[in-house]
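User: I'm curious what two different proteins look like when written out as structure tokens. Can you demonstrate?

Assistant: Sure. I'll show them one after the other, since each token string lines up with its own sequence. Here's the first protein:
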Amino acid sequence: MKTLKQTISQILKIKDTPSPELDELIWKFICYPPKMPLRAHQEQLLAQAEKFSFTVNDPYFTHSDLTCNGFIWGNGSRTIMITHGWGSKAADFSDLLNALLTVDDVRIISWDAPANGSSEGELSNLLLFVQAIKTVINKYGQPDVLIGHSIGAMANVVALNDLKFLPSLLISITPLIRLRENFEASMTSVEIPEVSQKEFLRSFEERYGFPPDVFNVDDVYKFGPELNHWLAYDKQDLISPHIYKEHFLTAHPEIKTLQCDGAGHDRIIKSETMIDGLVAVVKQVLK
């Protein structure tokens, strides 16, 4: 968190004068996931897990392989995988993990994405999240239940499209729907002028070969009633505004939903309402 605060402070000092230095700071601001230390109960949860590691190639920032850390709880025959959100980590799902471990015959797999939690790297992006998901699935097999929060939910959809398989249940917790709008809201929050925002979006397309709009879930989501999809959301969510989810859900009325108003974008993963609803649908699917 200290690094993020320093980056924001530097941006605020020079935000009104476009420059290569400002451009570089904006890239760091957008792509740096803050890391929060583990709490005691999270350390205890990780101590109970079987540890594994895997590598993800990073062609965007370090141009090297990054080692990521993963965790497995339980040894059941049905697999649940969890993809965390931006600036988060597997251990942040401690409340949900403990609740899911009450389900019979399950194995729960989660990991810290590149540059998040305990995994290597300083900067990250959606594509590194997707690579991590695909690597873990290739290593441990297709999950029966795939859970994702925020950008992790968006990454799950992209990965499923690439891997061409459907889990028995896909769970999206306050998913990010539109990446460009998320970038713009983040930049506006630290008073970055429109001209510099446009320069960042231009440089994004130059670096990656496509604009951030290419990942809009409205366009990426190719599934219909054949995918059992459950989605939890908060109408007051400021990070992933409900108007975007509302548009997406109108186009896909087959998706089952749970409204968790007041839970908040980050704290929804600790919401009792969300956890109770999620565990109930998991038990129904895996019974």
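Here's a second, unrelated protein for contrast:
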Amino acid sequence: MMFLEFSVWGAWFVTVGSYMGSIGFSGAEIGTSYLMNNIAAILSPFFIGMVADRYFSSEKVMGVLHIVGGGVLYFATGLTEATPLILALLIYNSCYMPTLALVNNISFQQMDNPGKQFPGIRVWGTIAWVLVGWMINFVLGPIYPDVELTTIPLKLGAALSVVLGLYSFTLPSTPPKNTAKQTSIGDTLGLKTLKLLKDRSFLVFVLVHCSFPFH
């Protein structure tokens, strides 16, 4: 699960800027395209807190999101105008980013000792990111010259997304945890975490990242 999760992301994310440049996108348009990933990351906790964490099993939500996302990503390969492609990437990322929390939730609920077991599982995500990049450059590269300038990485990401979506339905049942819990707007927005700012180390961490957002 973890290997496939990051294979999907790594397959297209690194090379999509090169592809967009090859079809005439400006630097600003390419930057805006990558911004869609960040916007989706901001929105995804609302979805997790209001829907996935209260009404549906995590593995089923993840399965649907990856299948739908794979379809959207494949559809995006046929778009060559900036605005439609950027909007398609926003929709795709809105499907993908919530799954990052879902894979963690599934992992933690199925482990006896997450503190010891999770690192060994999470590292497979990093391995996947590296291997899929190597595959694009050293396996597909010799077959398809300038593969990074084509839609092949996007199509590979779409295919892997559908595979993971189907596989998700075979994962152990991970039912919602907060079905009987009344969730406030503050809980959904994560306002309670603001209390952590009282901790000096956490405050410095936040200030540094706010000062250098691209660090």
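A detail about the second structure: The CA atoms of residues 33 and 86 lie 5 Å apart.
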